[in-house]
Amino acid sequence: MNNNAKIDLSDQIKYTIIDQKVTIIGYKGEPEYIVIPDTIEGHPVTEIRDNSFYNCSTLKQIQLPDTLTLIGHHCFYGCTSLEGIDLPESVSEIGMGCFCKCSNLSYVGLPSKLKVIPDSCFRYCNSLKSAELPESIVSIDKFAFSCCTDLDSVTLDSSLVSIGDYAFFMCDSLKNISIPESVTCFGNEAIGYHPVPSGHSVISDLKITCNKDSAAYDYAQSNAIELSYGTESPAALDSLNNCKLPIDVPDFFFWSGLILLTAALISVFISQRKKKKRSRF
Q1: Could you tell me the pTM of the whole model?
Q2: Which of 1, 106, 167, 206 is deepest in the core (most CB within 10 A)?
């Protein structure tokens, strides 16, 4: 996006300029639609400070500039009317609780430079139905998607290493989650739990898809969560061969072998006939 056109922001946001860089620090009135330009007063907008749009319940849409690199903690906390947001590719860090309690948020586009989904980032985002995390993500911190009750699709990449405490707690619509072998660390009740009168219980119809001999496999077994297996590892394939399972031979090799055998038998037969003829003279 390129928002260099002059936009009157005087009734919408507050900002400060430090070291020739613009930081958004708050909002004015009851804005519904905000477009933040790349530059303000000739300086690039690089940061949205902590709590800048905290409890801005009227905000429905906000367009962020390509110059932005940092979004602070709880920036959009309690923006209950916010419907969707695209974070520019320039953003490499977002703070904890950034979109917490954005109850109407149904879409978020995450940048490819982001490495961490921080603590409580999307907590109580009840309208969020899917989460496709970029390849860059290495950690999903505690409570990151907790209480996202409509979340039914999560895409995790093979760069992911850890899933924190209660990261997907009370995600009751999530019926199947595929976890790559790269994930080696699981926090307490990281996936598959919800509250019951007696405490916390495993969601009965959740299934974890993973490889055997992975940390996800161990997590599912130790928490009595149903398992579905992904592609087998080389070790698993070796174990199958050791079990001497029948091996399917393609038709091509079968018929090729049969033709060669027939040709050999004919050759032997002709050779024997020639020897018998010579023996007569």
Answers
A1: 0.79
A2: 167
CA distance 210 to 272: 62
Find, among 75, 112, 129, the residue nearest to 97 by Cα: 75
* Assigned domain for 226 exists: no
Kindly state the DSSP code that residue 127 receives in the 8-state scheme: T
Residue at 23 is within a domain: yes
Residue 249 lies in a domain: no
- What is the rounded distance in angstroms from the CA atom of residue 265 to the CA atom of residue 201? 71
Determine the residue type at 28: K
Measured CA to CA, the distance from residue 15 to residue 280 in angstroms comes to 114
Q: What is the pLDDT of residues 202-241, one digit of tens each?
A: 999 999 999 998 999 999 999 999 998 765 443 333 333 3
Q: How far is CA 5 from CA 66, 85, 230, 245, in A?
A: 14, 21, 50, 69
**Which tokens hold the place of 263?**
């040709």
Instruction: Please tell me the total count of domains within the chain.
Output: 1
